[in-house]
Design a protein that fits this description.
The protein is an alpha/beta fold. 34% of the residues lie in helices and 22% in strands. It is built from 17 helices and 19 strands.
Length: 483
Amino acid sequence: MSFRRSFLIRAVGSLILFPIAAFTKKVKSAEEINTGGCYDVIVIGSGAAGLTAAIFAADKGKKVAVFEKMPVIGGNTLISSGILNAPDPHRQDLQGIQDSEDLFFNQSFQAGHFKSNPQLLSLMVKNANPTLRWLESIGVKFKKGVFQVYGGLWPRSHYPSISHGRGYVAVLSEQCRIRNIPIYTNCEVYELIKKNGKVSGVKVLYKGEERIFNAQNGVVIASGGFTANLNKCYKLDPNLHGMKYTGAPSATGEMLDIAEKAGAQLKDLEEIQCNLGPDIGYKHRSGFHLDVTRHILVNKLGNRFVAEDNARDVIRDAVFIQPERIVFSLVDKGGFQNLGSLFQQASILGEREGEHYSALTIEELARKMKVPYQNLKNSIDHYNSAVDTKKDSFGRERWMLQEKIQNPPFYAARVKMAIHYTMGGIVINEKAQVLDKNNEPISGLYAAGEVTTGVHGKNRVGGNGLLDAFVFGRIAGESVAVK
């Protein structure tokens, strides 16, 4: 069993102890679905973007349905780290952190190599704090402080109290239940219906049979990216050949082709982001690298090789030139305890299977990692010294030199780069309307989340993915509700 399928099964299994109404909501009876249905709005995909779009369309008085091709809802959101970026004076002021929308925009724009659509990026940034407040208002809980996530570039990342994306999906699905929004699972959309130039419905497969659903106002595509479509990723970027992926197996990207057949413009599909994942043949993904203040990266020689607070593409390129492209993420007791419960579980299971390592001394850890002890000790000593002096030879920023690696047990995970996120996809405008090849809106068709392009440019900032999904999910839901 692959690590991502195993991870998804464990994540879903853990929900037994955490009641979520819509997780067990199945497709209506065959007799009911055979007649098809007529809705104002149909949403394709049940992750953060899709459920948010459904909620806001329903709040505009529209009759909404959500279609999900998998047997459970949540998509990549369910097994994501759950981390959300947002300037937040309430939390940041208490930690002495200065932030602003301008800083957030400029950092994201620069990290994307100035290839983002400025209007879309600006919308995401301006709606970041209101989105955080909305999530809290409907029941999502976050930890008290903020931190800088891997590739996040600034301490504005919010960690949900419930590990990974389970809390988001739980709350959003409950909001759908309250609004009587049906979520059809095991329903795969295979065609968009157009009448007189307007998208007016979908054709779906349910147990191998075709069904037609009409949408008076329109359709929102929120089906996610295509990171699990390895052949497509390898073809678009040969440098990715042989890599695994970090997300859900449902992220195969069929809706891109379906949208294109309906006239949608696709762009920048070759812009595919990598993140740290398990080595080939391993299945337990480490979260040691998520909090940049608590981890370092070393190669097979036990040497640090990069500033761990860099942008994700910078770290990717640095990993690519290490021996065999294999590196280790290393934390101490504090770093391990700061992880979400599912990442802690993955580490424990990974250690049993020889993928992760723990030890009471650095010497023992080096032996288990099969790296030179003296090199590893020197790397840790030099890093700890940098925390004292606030000067790092690899260029870590001062505010990222906070936590020493000094308290046993010590932990390490053997990792490689893996396919993580697709920045390219369906072109949209500021109203989340899907654009055709002439940059004109396609009537009745909207999109939000990873299935779209334009927000992140050539490189996504860590913690911006879920924010993008929530912000444009809301915009899509409100836009489609207006004829």
